[in-house]
Amino acid sequence: MSIEIKVPPLPESVTDATLVAWHKSVGQGVARDENLVDLETDKVVLEVPAPAAGTISKIVVEDGATVVAGDLLAILEEGEVAAAAKPSSEEKQDKQEKKAAPAPKVAKGPVKTSPAVRRLLDEHDLDATMVSGSGKDGRITKADVMAFLKSDSSSEVTPGDPTPTAGVEEVTSGLAREEKRVPMTRLRARIAERLVEAQQTAAMLTTFNEVDLTEVMALRKRYRDDFEKKHGVRLGFMSFFAKASVEALKKFPAVNASVEGNEIIYHNYYDIGIAVSSDRGLMVPVIRDVDQMSFADFESALSDMAKKAQDGTISMDDLTGGTFTITNGGIFGSMMSTPILNQPQSAILGMHSIQQRPMVMDGDIVARPMMYLAVTYDHRIIDGKEAVQFLVSIKEQLEDPSRLLLQI
After folding, report:
1. How does the average pLDDT of the chain come out, rounded?
2. What are phi and psi of 37, to 5 degrees?
């Protein structure tokens, strides 16, 4: 029986998608639920699984095409995978020739890869079974592919080849001023669009402060091992900042609000977006109802979201609906920055590097672990006084973490 493979329903507000790459070709057998093709939208990569076991008999849409929900992608002939087309005489001859030489060792069974890794493999015309995966459960990472390419290219020139250096120098000199022009990915184009939109729509202003993290660091050091042993997740800094932000948002509701036309929408819930860097670019997965979470609940949810972003399995629902955002440029070494609003939200908190700096404490100069904080806010609905007091509230709770427990 012939089965039509169609574009699945797209997430809300997404009108079309780009067909990134087919993982099967005409005549290849597929197993039920095996991924056939990747579709990239403005936010996420969607995988289209096979509805049944069978053989691809026709591919209608090629790589790079733009599709909408319901478009026909391919035709699948249902049946056992083993019933795929019989090899031709040329293929038989190729197999006999390959038997004469020892075949390279390849991984058995399906190889786990993320959409970003699959695109990298396709770009270099590599089979996933050629690369050894160092990730969990044998998953192949981008680093594994790059290491394979590096080792493969280095093996092309063997010791004793005549004047290999001269040829390399000639090629290098010819490529020194070459340019490479590539189209933006849909995600990068959407990020650019939203950043420009934010700058043109909101009246953005940024206020700064600094926080002494001595008490937070001491608390983490004291309970880090016990926390991880009991809850199975690490105690990070982000949970302190998220919980401190929620308490500050309760005091200043306008910072947790958004603008829609001439109306201000005040949210009585606290869905915090956490900026995460992935192979595909910056993503902001949303952790919902943070006010109702324990530190362990938050850290676990954040870990799950970060993993989904890296694996390319994050959904549109995971990326929409936040009321406030936190971004941490400190993990990349940023000392200070002015983050841009994640519209339609009215504020975003920027964290930065922790550095030992001399501070005057009770008349003495002492070294303290200090971090600069920044809050960019929409001046249309948040006054400067509110923004400054909001940031001061976060500072006070982080410098005395017992406030978080007492919610004061």
Report:
1. 82
2. -155, 150
Please give the Cα distance from 355 to 116 (Å, whole number).
34
Q: Helix or strand or coil: residue 343? A: coil
Position with higher pLDDT, 363 vs 106: 363
Chain centroid, CA 247 distance in Å: 27
Output the pLDDT for position 167. 47
Sequence-separated (6 or more) residues with CB below 8 Å from residue 162: none
Distance CA 385, CA 383 (A): 5
Q: Which residue of the set 94, 152, 161, 383 is catalytic?
A: 383
DSSP string, 178-247: -----PPPHHHHHHHHHHHHHHHHS-EEEEEEEEE-HHHHHHHHHHHHHHHHHHSS---SHHHHHHHHHH
pLDDT, residue 110, reads 54
- Which tens digits make up the pLDDT trace of 189-215? 777 887 888 888 889 999 999 999 999
For every residue of 20-48, DSSP letters joined together read EEES--TT-EE-TT-EEEEEE-SS-EEEE
DSSP string, 268-292: SS--EEE-EEETTEEE--EE--GGG
Is residue 274 predicted with pLDDT exceeding 60? yes
271 included as an active-site residue: no
Residue that the structure tokens 């880090």 belong to: 224
Beta-bridged to residue 39, according to DSSP, are 19, 46
Between CA 250 and CA 240 the distance in angstroms is: 16
Tell me the two tokens of residue 47.
Answer: 């995988």
Cα 117 from chain centroid?
Answer: 13
Q: Could you give the maximum distance between any two Cα atoms of the chain, in Å?
A: 90
The span from the CA of 305 to the CA of 276, in Å, is: 9
Tell me 345's DSSP state. Answer: B
184 to 32, 187, 188, 189, 334: CA distances (angstroms): 33, 8, 6, 6, 25
Domains, the chain, with CATH or none: 1-85 (2.40.50.100), 102-159 (4.10.320.10), 186-406 (3.30.559.10)
Does residue 379 have an active-site annotation? yes
What is the structure's pLDDT at 111? 62
Among 374, 372, 279, 370, which Cα is nearest to 325's?
Answer: 374
Q: Which of 71, 304, 379, 400 is catalytic?
A: 379
